Amino acid sequence: MIRALIAVVAAAHAQAAWLRIATPGFEVITNAGEKTGREAAERLERIRAVFARFEGVKPLPLPVRAFVFRSAADFRPFQPSSIAEGVYQSGPERDYIAMHAGSPEVYRVVFHEYVHLVLHHSMAPLPQWLEEGTAEYYSTLEWRAGSVFAGRAIEDHVRALLTNEWLDAGTFAGVTKRSPLYDERKRAGLFYAQSWAMAHMLHSAPHYRPRLPAFLAMLDRGEPAGLAFERAFETGWERGMEDCRRYVANRVFAVTRMPGEEAAAGIEASPMTDLDADLAKLDMLLTQGHDEAAERLTRGMRREHGGSAEVLAALGLLALHQKKDGEAKTFLRRAMDAGARDARVWFEYAMLVRDTGGGREEVRALLRETAGRHPNHAESSFLLGLMESQDGRPREAIPLLERAVSILPRQSSFWHALAMAYRQVERPEDARRAARRAAEAAASPHEAEMARNAVRLVRQPLAPSRSERRPDVIVPPSWNAPKGEARVEGVLEHVDCMGASARFRVRGEEGPVWLYVDKPGEILLKTPSAVTFEFTCGVQRPRRARMEFNPRRDPGRKTAGDLVSIEFLD
Fold it and tell me: I need a labelling partner for 344 at 20 to 30 A (CA). Which of 30, 140, 156, 225 fits?
């Protein structure tokens, strides 16, 4: 009896051990056992081979780490919503997929999340219904007799659509990731079902299938979804929804056959230490912004391995997320001195040096170190390109900015900076295209406003003296914010542009004061004539100004506070 009990305990412990499954395209981390990990890895490699044949799909620029958790409880800290069985998360250094082996359709979840990953790196943002519908359509991939079949009917979706009232056309088209609909399990399930049905019709119905490539091309060029739908399919959105209802009622769901191989690529499995597994999990939690779960995990790591470079780096990154910048800077510096290899450590340290008034060349050197450690680190390429633009070298900036947008094509600020650089070297068509991409990728009202200003600016001819000026930071007309807690009056001397943020240096009676702007769209420009005013990056024409700001609570920072409003006095 005792031997049997020991065997059961040993088997349970072995099942819970962490494994790393390595393939040419993925790193699968699992505590669900080697068999489950290998199956997930094989399926990921198969779908990667399928999408590699699709026109317009680029090789993935970042490593992909996939977690296959043993249970729903293990997956819960990473779960984006109560109904999610899996998640895709993009990061600056790698992409992440996570799911749990207890899901009844775990491999359909694997495929669904992989499609999100491919779309994220391949084209402009799609309407949410098309993103989810496409992921659901390809989640049903099956391999048989040397071929791949897509489009198998998902019976749960069919049942939901035949027995429930559909979301109306306007509500359905307007769903985003932030929609409250996702808090209601039934309505969210209906949204996924309806999205799958629309995607299936576009891929399979005789009237729609041949026109689908044109529709996608229009969306990738930034055309509004409703107009693109009408132009591509020669029918309105409401009519398309009616066609979809009839399509589902007919219950004829054709499958698409494509060439494919059954054989999987070479796969290697190796055990992981608990520390390595915890570091991998922490990496994803921090990228997701799940700081409470990250803090719980970090406390245990610090007790057992507090002096290692990896744990010092983890403590620094966690402190950064908690806005403890002084503590973060100390931990990250210690991690670098201890031999930390993670490029993110160098990048975040560079950002802290920048934000605390460090030298521009030191920041540039740290960003170059980041890019050297991770050539596809998009943020470092972007900021290095931006610095070249600010220094009056747009031709040197363009290759760096083009690299950034090729890695993360859905970053509005990347396209905005590229549009300005193209304009500086008198490439108007490229500038207009980049400005449109900035507009279509905008994920906030501020980004949308900045992009609209860029679109207007690139349409204007370049003034003869423009090539001698530095790139513009365009002030949106919608700036507004509450009053600041403190005020400084003096001469505005310098604007240090840092992508979506900036710092203003104003010389008051007691010397220079640096004021940080994290979200320019929340600044109030009080001067009435300043609606069309454009700051230039770098040295300013001396101009007296009154600035309100909220003082920084961290005395270790050189920046005095966060800028709230500007009023020009002359």
Answer: 30
